[in-house]
Design brief:
A seven-stranded antiparallel sheet has the order 2-1-7-8-9-6-3. The radius of gyration is 19 Å and the shape is elongated. The chain has two helices and nine strands; from the N terminus they run H-E-E-E-E-E-E-H-E-E-E. It has helices spanning 2-11, 85-94, and strands at residues 13-19, 24-27, 36-38, 41-47, 53-60, 64-71, 100-106, 110-124, 130-138. It is mainly beta.
Length: 150
């Protein structure tokens, strides 16, 4: 048990969402090790008259983060202090149409960006936990120079 907790801390990741300049902050209770980050790059391929392919590199696309996990329905000792499932679902549903700030912290990945929720699917499991899929996409404020706002 202790080794699994130490393993979670060393390899684990914490993800926080905030609304309205930190007026409300929400921490995901459990982040699985297989969170998917996507950072696309726009590009075009051109074929020359001699048949050679050339690549024209464009701008970086919007970052996307997808999480498939669960919200606990009861307190699990290995999770420590957490927010239970009904409050987790409530936070995400109430702020679906808002810009959020997401902060991702781990030993290998750090991210801090404005985002919007593009997908939130959830269902109740037999044990009462809520299984969910959450996808957020980077939000670039068109009214600010340089893109990301603080």
């Amino acid at each position: 048990m202790i080794s699994s907790i130490a393993n979670y801390i060393l390899k684990g990741m914490e993800i926080y969402f905030s609304v309205d300049n930190n007026k409300e902050i929400f921490k995901l209770p459990y982040v699985p090790p297989d969170v998917e980050f996507e950072s696309p790059l726009d590009f075009e391929l051109f074929e020359t008259t001699s048949g050679k392919l050339l690549t024209l590199v464009g701008e970086r696309g919007l970052k996307t983060l997808t999480i498939e996990s669960f919200f606990p329905s009861k307190f699990y000792g290995w999770l420590g202090s957490i927010t239970l499932a009904p409050l987790c679902v409530d936070f995400l549903e109430r702020h679906r149409n808002k810009k959020l700030r997401i902060v991702v912290a781990s030993l290998s990945i750090q991210e801090n960006m404005e985002c919007i929720i593009t997908e939130f699917k959830y269902s109740k499991k037999h044990n009462g936990d809520i299984k969910y899929t959450l996808t957020v996409q980077e939000y670039i404020n068109p009214n600010k120079n340089g893109g990301n706002s603080a």
